[in-house]
TrEMBL record:
<keyword id="KW-0812">Transmembrane</keyword>
<keyword id="KW-0472">Membrane</keyword>
<dbReference type="InterPro" id="IPR052796">
    <property type="entry name" value="Nod_factor_sulfotransferase"/>
</dbReference>
<keyword id="KW-1133">Transmembrane helix</keyword>
<dbReference type="InterPro" id="IPR027417">
    <property type="entry name" value="P-loop_NTPase"/>
</dbReference>
<protein>
    <recommendedName>
        <fullName>Sulfotransferase</fullName>
    </recommendedName>
</protein>
<feature type="transmembrane region" description="Helical">
    <location>
        <begin position="20"/>
        <end position="42"/>
    </location>
</feature>
Amino acid sequence: MLLQERMSAYPLKSSKGPVFPLRSVLVFLIALFGFYVCYFSFNQLTFENEEKLTNEEEQTKSICRKPAVPHEEKRYLHFPKPITYDRGECACTPVRFFVIVSMQRSGSGWFETLLNSHPNVSSNGEIFSVRDRRENISTILRTLDKLYSMDWHTSAAKNECTAAFGLKWMLNQGLMEHHQDIVDYLNRKGAMVILLFRRNTLRRLISVLANNYDRRTKQLNGIHKSHVHSKEEALSRVQEFLGVPVMKLSSKHVKIHTRPLPDLVDNWEDVSDMLNGTKYARFLDDADYVK
Ligand SMILES: *[C@@H]1O[C@H](CO)[C@@H](O)[C@H](O)[C@H]1NC(C)=O
Ligand SMILES: *[C@@H]1O[C@H](CO)[C@@H](O)[C@H](O)[C@H]1NC(C)=O
Ligand SMILES: *[C@@H]1O[C@H](CO)[C@@H](O)[C@H](O)[C@H]1NC(C)=O
């Protein structure tokens, strides 16, 4: 109505001017505008559809509010969507990805069982002990992708909501050969690294020998044993690091070869003489941890 009034009012005002060209220009513009509106809304429709399909993860992210953590920690929080099962009521429980980097005979087995005694932590063992998975960098990254999508089923699975999910990785399981690519991947992925090493390298080396001896003589019937010390504060710090409620962790692993080093090593005098006065002398005093 308004438009029509204007249209009819128009020629009155400009009756002396070139009426016809102006009117047709106006009609043309209105038609153009109509086309534009149609085109635009059509585009919008398809665009919205596409967005629905591709941005599912974005949507989850906006639906699942990230908890109040410092900005720089946000990139370590993930909401994985496994293909093989539904996280159900845990879908909005953020998960931190971690990797325990260690060496053999460093107490990492004990450490991992401790972590797995936490209801919100799931560590999936030495997944790269399988040679095929560390064949080359692409098999390594594919394995990691599969693990961190949480489509990985081991005894580490929990009934509670998993809030920290990871693996144990020995330095000699492809980690050293491909360290640059792996570091890039972990950074990109927002995964956290726990470096576990035995402070007393000498004790670790002796433990390697002792372990071989034990294996040959079959002393280890039944339960698995690790050569370790307990360190409660360290464990609380790891739990804080992983963003899980701090609780008392337990392990069935027991430490063997607890005797002082001189009792364990036949030629201790030779070892001692060799190391005395060098920067390795500190290993002689038998301490695994800083006191
Ligand atoms: C990595 O190893 C897999 C399995 O052996 C093989 O199929 C693939 O071609 C290798 N990729 C590269 C880049 O070497
Ligand atoms: C640990 O699991 C419980 C039970 O599923 C859950 O309510 C809680 O939010 C989880 N903790 C964290 C830090 O996600
Ligand atoms: C190291 O050497 C010094 C001097 O030669 C000696 O007094 C000390 O007892 C030695 N320490 C050990 C642990 O053998």
